[in-house]
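Obj: model holo form, ligand = fe (ii) ion.
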Amino acid sequence: MNAVAEVTDKSVVDPVSRWYAGATVRNAPRIYVPQNIAEENIFPPSRQLLAAHPLVEKLGQEAISYVLAQSTYKYMYEIGLLETRFVIDCSLKIINGEIGTDVPEEDKREAITIVIDEGYHAYVALDFIIQLKANTGIEPLSVPQTNGNLDAVHRGYEALPRSLHGTFQLLATCLAEHTLTKDLLSIGKEKEATVTFTKVMTDHVSDEGRHANYFARMLKDYWKTVGTDDQKLIGSFLPNYLRDYLAADFERQFDRDVLSQLDLTADEIDTVLQDTDERYSAAAKSYIDVTIANLVKLLDRNGILAHPETRAVFVQEGLLTV
Ligand SMILES: [Fe+2]
Ligand SMILES: [Fe+2]
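Output (holo structure tokens):
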């Protein structure tokens, strides 16, 4: 039984009442980016190790703010990509009958709330970017059109027959929404970031718990309608997909690009990257291990690992012990 179903107050359980009462798009005021980001950390420095390196600090507050602003742009653009290119698309397919058959209208109505919520999250992220540019005069290094997560989803489509793309999309969206919920919770707890950044994270996550529960329920019901052979095919493909989806950029191309904009020599850039690499890699590996363990539990809870053949692949890949 999930957290929603355990609540006994009917008015809180009802997804319609919950959405009207709690959705940020209906209740949250606009978030204003600080005028002077030199006075506060626009991004948590614990998530961008370059900012605290002595060679960057030596360049002064402007350089530190520049590094943190670039991480903010990247984070906000990636939220927009996930929402507009992935989650909204999946929700629209549920609404339009392209994923799932005989989906009750109540569930389609809830999928519409997700389209609205995710549209608002993408709006808040882009509003943040536009304000940050106006207040600081700092231009984003790039405007990403994709990222590692979305590339992995596209490789997933290529690896599976077309007839399974809808099933895979629902599964991949469910995995992404659970991952995002935990990521937002975690980054929202970082102590050193400005309240403005934290507010974007805590507002967003307050909607995502609802979404994660919805997609898990839809996946559990939908999976029962998928044929056994197709279930096993997708099951055997999932360990590689999970690793691909969560792969970290151990080359640190983004960090290198940011440092190249500062007044540093090539040797100094290498020094900053080398000095921070152990912490960077340890954090990335720990994140991948913890997230995969959470997602394997989610898959197990919702029946995706029910076949002995699927479990055997997960055990063989070191993702399950039994
Ligand atoms: Fe969202
Ligand atoms: Fe969501």
